[in-house]
Specification:
mainly beta, NE0471 N-terminal domain-like, three-stranded antiparallel sheet, 11% helix, 38% strand
C-alpha cells in the first residue's frame, strides 16, 4: 500500500517518469533526458497524426518546446505530451 495526495492505494507505487530536458532537432526529432538519467530519441512526427498537435507541423513552433513540471510543452502550455508516452515511443540514445 502507498499514499499519494492523501489517497491510499492497495498496489505498489510506480515510479513516475518526468522529462528533465528536451533538445529539439531538425526533422521534428528530439533528444529527451528523463529524470531517470536516460537519454532517448523521440520522433515528433508521431504527434502530427492527431489534430490537437497540428500547430507542431510548423517547424518554428516545434522548435520552441519547453519543459514544464516534467512535461514537454509548446504554445505556453496549451499543447503537451505525457512523459510516459514520450518514453514509451522513444529509443535509447547514446552519443
Amino acid at each position: 500500500m502507498y499514499i499519494l495526495n492523501g489517497i491510499a492505494y492497495a498496489n505498489t507505487t510506480k515510479d513516475e517518469i518526468e522529462i528533465k530536458t528536451v533538445k529539439p532537432l531538425p526533422d521534428k526529432m528530439m533528444i529527451i533526458t528523463f529524470t531517470s538519467g536516460e537519454r532517448r530519441l523521440y520522433d515528433g512526427n508521431l504527434l502530427l497524426q492527431y489534430p490537437a498537435f497540428a500547430p507542431l507541423a510548423n517547424d518554428e513552433i516545434f522548435m520552441q518546446v519547453t519543459v514544464d513540471d516534467g512535461v514537454a510543452t509548446w504554445c505556453n502550455g496549451t499543447i503537451d505530451v505525457a512523459p510516459e508516452v514520450m518514453y514509451r515511443d522513444s529509443y535509447n540514445y547514446s552519443t
